[in-house]
Amino acid sequence: MHLEPTSPCEERRDSGPTRTEELRTLGELLDGPASPVSVVEISGERWMGKTALLRDFARLAEAKDWTVASGYASPPLPGVPFGVFADALDDLLGRFGSGLMDGRSHEHVRWLAGIFPALATSAPPSEPTGPAEMYQVFRAVRGLLTSLGSPGGLLLTIDDVHWADQASVTLLGHLLRHPPDGKVVIAIAHRPAQVDPLLRSLLAEAVANGSAHRVSSAPLSDEHALALLPGDLSRVRCETLLRESGGNPGMLRAFASAPASPAGTGGQVMRLPLDVLADCLRDFRGLSALGWTVARSAAVLGEPFEPGPLRQVAEASDAEVRAAIDELIREDLICPEQFSRRFRFRNALLRAAAYQSAGPGWLIGAHTRAARGLTALGESRPELATHLQRSASTGDVEGAEVLLDAAQRHLWEDAAQAASWAQTAIDLDTRPEGPAQEQRVLLGKALALAGRLRQSLAVLGGLGSHPDGQPGIWLEGHNWLAWVRGLLGQHESARAELAVAIDHPALTDAGSLAVSRRTRFILDLERNAAPEALDVEALHGGTATARPVLHGYVIALLAVAALRRADTAVAKALAEDAAEVFGRTADRDLAKHLDGLYWLAEVESALGNADLALAHAERGLHVAENRRLCGQIPQFATALGVLQLRAGDRVGAARHAACAKAAATSIGSDHLLAAALALESEALEGGPLPSAEQSPPPPRSPRLPLLASIDNDEAMLELEALSGRELEIAVLVSEGRTNQQIARALELSHKTVETYLGRIFKKLTVASRAEVAAMVGRSGGAGSLVSAGARGISRA
């Protein structure tokens, strides 16, 4: 996502009611004769939009024919006083020429020449030598501003005043107490936590007596914040970003542009795009060398951090670390935790910038020192794994064990991180026979959950066709292999994998076999085929008591099967039980059986409980996105979009279609991409489905029916109104075929297929292809229609 010119440093935000009102009020200060308000104060945290508002105020003044001079402060350079005013006014003074100096005393001219290089030709520059002369300098600048403001008015804007040099701050204080005559307004922007305490006090006094006007940057409303986010982010993801950014527009854009959530796992650091990194590093420019080292060391340690480990990583003394911490707090880069000796960065962007600015060689050493310190303190393995991943050497068996253990523990917390840890552990292993089967399966699982499907296939495909001493591990690998093939739309290959596993004589573990049966059961549901008739015990392997969430998952699957049999009463009872179980289950436990929410959403939708269906789909998407279970994001985003479309929310459906499309593309599933494209086509005013040349063939059937009715007999009666050719086309539509694919299959023209579809829509009283597919599915699918045709369905 390209942030220019709306990056964190640009702080630009879209106009909303609050922003419009602010500008209207500021514009009134420029109208008419001299205003009693001589200073406008714009305060707010970093990236809240201060710069944008200051810039809009300047444009407004220019439109009213005011003279505008703009400058900004930066971390001051020693020996350069009044730098803010020189930056703002020097170019303007160069345009006015030496005529501005007419009538001024020789001393004033020399002092002004010492501040503004453009006036150096008027007299030899001179610097004040004491308080009395400094006061005269202030009077000279005040008089100069009065001249610049006559006759049309002068607006002087100064950004980032919290970084101003002391002389500039003192001069601003003088101008607050003794404002220039005439139409002169000084507008300043600053961060309240960093601004000079005396200046803050003077500003408060000026606001109280009416000579200054204060604008405090408020967080964006959800509506205006949402407008800044890309259209392919899910509503769930948008809400997460809004919460994490606190309505701060700069942080919001940066979080949206980063590949992962600001809330990292195991001390991980989000990776910033280069333009965002450059913007964030502005805040570090004033740091000393020691401050830089300690900031980077803190970024390596993760949050929260303590002075003790910080000393070891930074290789600094206790006094040096304390001094650096004070410096970082002054710069508002870190803050102490309440009632604690621990500290945090002000936000995730600052930590990421500090980390990303460090050199690779220094980082290796820093992580090595951090790992050594955590080992001595007996810290938990996941925290240690973060540092070992970047510092362990080939052949480090103990380090590899720590990484594998951390990967196993965090598999359902952050699959991408677990995959990275598992891969590093395997890379550290120098045994000639290669990684153990258990390690290979762990890596394959993590890759699958992280959405790296092709890599997962390559890893799990190397397990072989026979168990090798660890039948349970081998079977688990084949179950995951089938799951990945299902996501890729390779249903027949997935069933073949499961058949090999289930029928193998060496495999007797009830729990592992139950996983295989559940996976095959789901594959049948996805294909609209009749699932294998199994009871609850066969599907959960007798572990329902120990794992209630598994029991909820199983009965959700059985509820879908009951719907396919048109057994509404059973489906309703099972759905209620599953919903109760899932409602009591924390997200961390639900993640392992997340598909249960997907199927429960389908059941509730078919039963007419639209709100419940939406809630289940939203929760599933929330869990998948927050835990980076990328392999499941396309399914939940598509399901949520379908439900919204059925409820008449085309905007929401289009957003989640775009989200599903981006997610399916990122994991490389043409199967799920086609489903997202079909939804997108329906959401965009029921337009035609993409052609075969534009997109891969869609999946054989929609994953989630749009119609609430589930009466099998009723659907069969409705379909009796179709002719034989229309029935053929309806069946092909239910299999997800495009118009061009149907035309080729039946040797018809594309236009003829469109004509038949128009007739089908009219006869069935539907408005979309998805509704046709759902009606065919409710009738029992293509097989049932063929059988019914043999029994006499009208072919007229």
**DSSP strand count:** 7
Tally of helical runs: 39
User: How much is the average pLDDT?
Assistant: 81
Poorly predicted regions are 1-7, 9-16, 687-713, 781-796
Q: Which structural category do the helix and sheet elements fall into?
A: mainly alpha
Q: Kindly provide the radius of gyration, computed on alpha-carbon positions and rounded to a whole number of angstroms.
A: 34 Å
Q: What fraction of residues sit in β-strands? A: under 5%
Main sheet summary:
5 strands, parallel
Shape: globular
Strand order of the largest sheet: 2-3-4-1-5
Q: How much helical structure, as a percent, in the residues?
A: 55-70%
Distance between the termini: 56 Å
Give a structural overview.
Helix content is 60%, strand content 4%. It has a 5-stranded parallel beta sheet, sandwiched between helices. Strands 6-7 form a two-stranded antiparallel ribbon. It is globular, with a radius of gyration of 34 Å. It has 796 residues and is mainly alpha-helical. Helix 20 (437-449) runs parallel beside helix 22 (471-487), helix 29 packs antiparallel against helix 30 (610-626) and helix 31 (633-646) runs antiparallel to helix 32 (650-667). Residues 1-7, 9-16, 687-713 and 781-796 have low confidence and may be disordered. The protein has 39 helices and 7 strands. The longest helix has 18 residues, at 131-148. Strand 3 (154-159), helix 6 and strand 4 (184-190) form a beta-alpha-beta unit.
